[in-house]
Design brief:
alpha+beta, 10 helices, six-stranded mixed β-sheet, Creatine Amidinohydrolase
């Protein structure tokens, strides 16, 4: 399956034309990968309204860029002789209005860029490429679905290691090893695997804490295929759950289902958040509910659209989002359930399939 980089570039050119911009300076790593296929670093992309795009890099990545980048001229910059801003404006020539990705450069880099500009008007662009990336094409869907399948399989294998005496770090290493053994390109993000009271840390790091009978277990992890990520969370208890643990799990599960049932094109992200939040806010654990419900996922772990209060985005066919409500009680433990969901013409399709079995055999 091949990527149509030309179509992606043309969609961005339309945004340039709509905003009467002659060029966009692209700094974001994932945006450059999305637009050209180049996966190296130390690169800056010039997307031009006239279609003559240029990728600037140095000697370390020049050959690689020539092999990977599609639809662009690869420009070798001598870092000792020419600054990046001078190179950018030398290549752009006498264009009038130049947009740049303000979200991806520092203030110091902007000052240098502004100093090097001559007659050009610099305009801070909104998240143009990110807005394109939130609707996945067939290739992207295939990659994320494959990453989710690998995560499902790796988790099924790793559950046997969740025994009393195992440490968080030991089990996390086994999970990551299994994903890579199955074909994952590393991990989608730092694996979150926590036992007992530490499971109340929404983004805690695995430690040498040992698993005990009756402990809650929280596992948040993902695989990577061709740069595209999956993101799934499962929560367990080792042995039989007590009344509070079981109640927490059932409420989180109900909050997730309330949102999952609504997913289809045209539904506003705020509606999903409200439906899930109502279940959590009407529960005995309302004060411990996590903020926000989910996010888009793709080349970057947390992409548009975000599912949280105040986000006005209607779901579109091709959005892939996470639905991940959670309850986190300090010094007691937490429970989160997370699925990756594709918005389809007829509604939605869940890409993650690991069972939500709460109790683990001790």
């Amino acid at each position: 399956m091949q990527v149509n980089y030309s179509a992606r570039q043309q969609r961005l050119i339309k945004k340039l034309q709509q905003h009467q911009s002659d060029a966009l300076i692209v700094y974001g790593y994932e945006n450059i990968v999305y637009l050209t296929g180049f996966t190296g670093h130390a690169a800056t992309l010039l997307v031009r309204a006239n279609g003559q795009h240029q990728l600037i890099t140095d000697y370390r990545y020049f050959e690689r860029a020539g092999n990977e980048a599609v639809g662009v001229e690869v420009v070798l910059r001598n870092r000792d002789e020419e600054s990046l801003p001078n190179c950018i404006f030398r290549l752009l020539g006498k264009v009038r209005q130049v947009s740049f990705e303000a979200h991806h450069i520092s203030h110091a880099d902007f000052l240098s860029l502004n100093t090097s500009s001559k007659s050009q008007m610099l305009i801070a662009a909104p998240l143009w490429v990110e807005s394109l990336r939130q609707v996945k094409d067939e290739y992207e869907i295939h990659c994320i679905q494959r990453a989710a399948e690998i995560a499902d399989s790796a988790l099924a294998h790793t559950l046997r290691f969740l025994k009393a005496g195992a440490t968080e770090r030991e089990v996390a290493i086994e999970l990551e090893y299994q994903m890579q053994k199955l074909g994952s390109e590393g991990v989608a993000f730092d694996t979150i695997l926590l036992f007992g009271a530490r499971s109340s840390l929404p983004h805690g790091n695995p430690s040498n804490t040992k698993l005990n009978l009756g402990d809650l277990v929280l596992i948040d992890f993902g695989a990577v295929i061709n740069g595209y990520r999956s993101d799934m969370t499962r929560s367990y208890v080792l042995g039989e759950s007590n009344q509070q643990q079981q109640s927490m799990f059932e409420i989180v599960q109900a909050a997730q289902h309330a949102a999952l049932e609504l997913i289809k094109p045209g539904v506003n992200c705020s509606e999903l958040n409200t439906a899930s939040h109502q279940v959590l806010s009407n529960s005995p654990f309302a004060q411990y509910a996590g903020e926000g419900l989910g996010h888009g996922v793709g080349l970057f772990l947390h992409e548009q659209p975000f599912i949280k209060p105040g986000v006005d985005h209607q779901l579109e066919v091709g959005n892939i989002i996470t639905i991940e409500p959670g309850i986190y009680i300090p010094n007691y433990g937490g429970i989160r359930l997370e699925e990756d969901v594709l918005v389809t013409e007829s509604g939605s399709k869940c890409l993650t399939h690991a069972p939500q079995n709460f109790q683990l055999a001790s």
